[in-house]
């Protein structure tokens, strides 16, 4: 963008100077910061923690929770631990919630999960991790308190990519009681209590490429 400016001189002769202002694309907003996590009984320590399928569930839990609360799915941590299909589903869900504070949900922390068994597919490309979790692990506009901590049965679907890395694809809860000896609950400090209303255009994704429209 150029701006014309009239400069007067002592002789009364004016000079027109063109000032050029740089107009580049707007910079991307900063990535969300992961809050401190306070654990009810220390970090998870089940006998299955070293299993790669369980490790994949653990690796995805924090970046996924941060993405939900920040309505921002850009982070490398998220894309390196969660399947692209799952991230697309999250993008669509966040955009659908935009502008509807009564339907907007936040999560108190990473998904609580005590793994009990791992069922690997015959081709070795996917697995179902069975375990215990917490029913309705969400906060809403009208319900800011933590949900009841009685364990229920849950499972996580994990896939293995061609390069040998793992991605969390789906988590499925239930209301069926579950016996758990190692379920520990991690809660963000502080809890997400900001403005619950946002526009779908406020959802930050990698698809945006930061080609933001400029008003006016």
From TrEMBL:
Q: Which domain of life is it from?
A: Bacteria
What is the recorded name of this protein? Answer: Lipoprotein
Q: What is the lineage of its organism?
A: Bacteria, Bacillati, Actinomycetota, Actinomycetes, Micrococcales
Task: Give the organism, scientific name.
Answer: Sediminihabitans luteus
Annotated signal sequence range? 1-28
What UniProt keywords apply to this chain's record, in alphabetical order?
A: Signal
């Amino acid at each position: 963008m150029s701006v014309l400016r009239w400069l007067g001189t002592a002789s009364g002769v004016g000079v027109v100077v063109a000032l050029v202002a740089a107009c580049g694309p707007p910079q991307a907003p900063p990535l969300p910061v992961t809050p401190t996590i306070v654990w009810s009984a220390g970090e998870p320590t089940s006998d299955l923690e070293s299993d790669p399928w369980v490790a994949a569930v653990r690796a995805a839990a924090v970046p996924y929770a941060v993405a939900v609360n920040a309505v921002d799915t850009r982070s490398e941590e998220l894309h390196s631990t969660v399947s692209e299909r799952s991230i697309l589903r999250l993008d669509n869900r966040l955009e659908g919630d935009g502008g509807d504070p009564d339907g907007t949900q936040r999560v108190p922390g990473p998904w609580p999960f005590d793994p009990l068994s791992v069922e690997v597919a015959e081709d070795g490309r996917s697995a179902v991790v069975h375990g215990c979790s917490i029913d309705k692990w969400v906060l809403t506009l009208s319900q800011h308190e933590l949900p009841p901590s009685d364990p229920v049965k849950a499972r996580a679907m994990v896939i293995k990519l061609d390069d040998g890395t793992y991605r969390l694809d789906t988590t499925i809860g239930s209301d069926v009681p579950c016996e758990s000896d190692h379920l520990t609950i991690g809660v963000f400090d502080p809890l997400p209590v900001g403005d619950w209303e946002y526009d779908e255009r406020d959802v930050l994704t990698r698809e945006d490429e930061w080609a933001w429209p400029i008003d006016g």
